Amino acid sequence: MAVAQVFFSAVACAQTGVEHTYHIASGPLDRTLVEIAQSSKVRLSYDASLVQSLKSAPVDGTYTPEEAIRHALSGTGLKLESTPTGTLTITKENAAASANVGGTVTAATAAAPASGASAPAAAVAASVDTTLPLISVAAQRDSGGTGFVTESSSTFTRTDTPLSQTPTSVSSVNAAVISSQNAQTLTDVLKNVAGVTTYPSVLGLPSYAVRGFQNAAVLTDGMPTSQAGGLGSAANLTPTIAISSVEVLKGPAAILAGDAPAGGVINITKKAPQADPFHEVQFSYGKYGNLTGSFDSTGAITPDKNLMYRFVLSDQGGGQNSMGYDGPTNFYFAPTLEWKNSTTAITVGYDRTVSKNPMPQYAIGKSSGGILSSPIDHPLGNPSDGFSMRQDDFFYKFEQKLGSHFTFVSKANYTETQELQRGWQPVMTLSATNGAPFMSFDTTSETYNWTFENYLRAKYDFGAVKTTTLFGWDYTTGHFNELEWNDGGKIVSVKNIFNPPTFPQLTSDGSGLGFAIRQKQSQSGFFLQEQLNWQRLHLLGSIRNSQYWESGSAEVVSPNGATTQYSTGPGLHQSAWTPNLGLLYQLTEDISAYANYQAGFQPSLATTFAGGTLPPQRSNQEEVGLKGNFMDDKLALTLAAYRISYTNQNIADPVHRGFSIAAGGAVSRGFELEAQGEILPGLNLIGQYTYNDYVRPYSPTLAVNLPKHSANLWTTYNFQTAALQGLGVGLGFTFASSQEVGTNSKYTLGSQLETDASIFYRHKNFGLNLAVKNLFNRNLYYSSVNSTFIPMGTTRTVLLTGTFDF
Hints:
Elements: E1 20-24, H1 29-40, E2 44-47, H2 48-51, E3 59-63, H3 65-73, E4 78-82, E5 88-92, E6 104-107, H4 121-125, H5 137-142, E7 152-153, E8 161-162, E9 170-174, H6 175-180, H7 186-190, E10 196-199, E11 207-210, E12 218-220, E13 223-224, E14 243-250, H8 254-257, E15 264-270, E16 278-286, E17 290-300, E18 307-317, E19 329-340, E20 344-358, E21 362-363, E22 386-402, E23 406-426, E24 436-462, E25 465-485, E26 491-494, E27 513-534, E28 537-557, E29 563-567, E30 572-586, E31 591-602, E32 617-630, E33 635-647, E34 650-652, E35 660-662, E36 665-680, E37 683-695, E38 709-718, E39 727-736, E40 739-740, E41 748-749, E42 752-763, E43 766-773, E44 790-791, E45 797-805
Parallel strand pairs: 2-5, 12-15
Antiparallel strand pairs: 1-3, 2-6, 4-5, 7-8, 9-14, 10-11, 12-13, 14-15, 16-17, 16-45, 17-18, 18-19, 19-20, 20-22, 21-44, 22-23, 23-24, 24-25, 24-26, 25-27, 27-28, 28-29, 28-30, 30-31, 31-32, 32-33, 33-36, 34-35, 36-37, 37-38, 38-39, 39-42, 40-41, 42-43, 43-45
Helix pairs in contact: 1-3
């Protein structure tokens, strides 16, 4: 059966006479045709079976779209024709074009597949392919119709670059994978990525470590939405119906994020407006009465299709979690407008996230060593304890072509965030009688953040050498206020956590301020980047200068109401140059080898007990690897080996709580293997294996709180017989080797394996997915830096999701 890939124009189709410059190497004909149609803004329709397994001729030069397509078809026995409606089509030489709608592939202008190409629901529903994953129409469209494989990304390079030609490790999980797994959270999605470890927070959003380095930045469309000091970015809470892909960029990535941690950054690419109308309604129902309703709608507003919209709405509510705390509530509202013609594109949008997340299920270490094995099934505090957040994000993007060589790009966002921590947390490990003291937290924080990014992109050809140069500037400034109320800091002694007393309600109304911290942080950077392509050789180099400023104050309110003001200093200024260089060489048409060096810089806000700020943290990564695209690009493999060294690492002072000490440095070594795609007709997979050896050769010796070995595998199979067409099953495994918890080796988590399964059905516009997480109901644990709080994974959970597209 022909593979039905569908892309539709985001502008009028009358672009066939406009010349464009192309640099497309010989490759799978289908992919080359889609790339020409997307970049040229033309509509192209053809029978998929005609181009299957064919290679295109190289297309290198300035041509009209029709000329470019004819160059690509050279030697294939195919020709280009035009239908009476003006649509371009491909037929066999001396043969009439097929009119079989169910087997056609339609390609035209759109955003890059990672950001969402569109298709009318009816067109896709008319040809259900039994080889691609059986997913919703929206997921098929937003993953570019390529199944589990992501072909390109514009996040790291700020240009739409094939991942197979990017000389660094970039992992991407697209909408097809997310839909097939019935993933509900960013944590669910990141299981698919090698080198990522999740650390749930007791009263906040999860944080993530990449290649062993914690607190990886979470970006949205390449832009930060939170400032240091907050309890997490609302990007963590983006509903999966709004996500086109999740990318993890390995290494310091200073060119993109400036002050990002050494391991890498996480980027969420949201679904973008599209010209052709499409709408999806989605409902999910799971354990403890957890119900989510979502709506995704896009289309053109004006007859010329230049003005488009996207609207995503999601609302989640639940009765309680597995520990008896009130269930999560999450509301998401995101309208976006885009106006685009052949030279100009303007996007404006707004996101609102309102959420309340309960204390997660957790275990506690014993003072004698070891971890409490019996799960706790009741709140240790009040049922309403948890973390609340409201975030409003306003953003725009402006892109303007300046002649045939230059493009100016400007992006900005403004984010307001209000957060509330309110709950009880153990502050010591369990006694012999399972008792421990609990301390209250009642903290409000506010963050106001501006981010700007502007750059000029120039593309030139010098004979066989193709270059893309970027020169730009970015600036981020934010204000952070933290208010600790008098309800915080109270102690309740619990003699036995399995028979706890009634905890006092934390109901501070704002009249009892005990402590306040106010900070202002700003960062500015200039960057220069060069991409060079010469035959099989691809080079990517950049250099960035980062400047960082921080100032702040604190005030303490005594019991009698007197206020004492403190300054955190005259102001902090730190700066650094961070170069990056990567080379990739295509050994064959299918296999490439690459190597890169990346430098990173992270300003230090850590203070010592003796006073003063610790020096900035610097990092260097050396990485080598292989990338392969096999089976007509249906299967992608990446193998990477890396070494990241880190100096001036700051760790928590084990003696003086709330302060830090300098600990020299750390070295993270390891290798990663990732695979995604189709290996047999109907059998699709995404999998990863990670070996990470994180060493901290300093005193005092602290435990390393992550596994050395971890792996994940998710497979789906679509039944190939006519009687079972539309039915599929999925099976997945997540493995982590043993690891230590807290600061010493008294607490160890054993190796663990989670098994997930699903059965799904797709028929025209309707789909059902029944997923079971933790099928065998094992006690699962996340990594933890604290022996008094060891977050647990989900118990056996059944989740039913239904979708309807129209």
